[in-house]
Amino acid sequence: MATAEATQEKTGLGNYFVANYPPFSFWKPAHLPEACQALASSPKPETPLGLYLHIPFCRKRCKFCYFRVYTDKNARDVEVYLEALENDRKNVESYQSQINDAQTALVRARTAAASSQNSAAKTQENAKAY
């Protein structure tokens, strides 16, 4: 009877996947303070955001690829995946629109409140003058 070790495929290029980037093997304890500081900081508006969307359907696995891929899916499976991805994009877009609307309403409310306070102060000053 063969042992599990003997029957297990040797790890090599293209036969395992990366679930995150950078891969865990690049993470070092010394990087933790900098990572925590970055996560606790507000985003920098001038820094563009990059987004990688992985489409995990391939005709065959390339030897240089470390990402999760499926070579056994049909066109309908791919279509379902892409439709779900598009729905997610629309949801994010809608959510962002709602955030923008709320931020605009907040700015308007603050402006109106400041204007109202200024108007009230002027009215009090005018009343004292009489």
Key features of this structure:
single chain; 130 residues; mainly alpha; 2 domains; 3 helices
Compact overview of the structure:
This protein folds into 2 domains: 12-73, no CATH class; 75-130. Helix content is 52%, strand content 0%.
Structure in words:
- The structure is a single chain.
- Helix content is 52%, strand content 0%.
- The chain is mainly alpha-helical and 130 residues long.
- The protein folds into two domains: 12-73, no CATH class; 75-130.
- The protein is elongated and about 90 Å long.
- 0% of the residues are buried.
Query: What integer value in Å does the Rg equal?
Result: 28 Å
Mean pLDDT across the residues is 78
Pairing-aware structural class of the strands and helices? Answer: mainly alpha
How many helices in DSSP terms?
3
Can you lay out the helices and strands and say which pair or pack?
Layout: H1 4-7, H2 32-40, H3 75-129
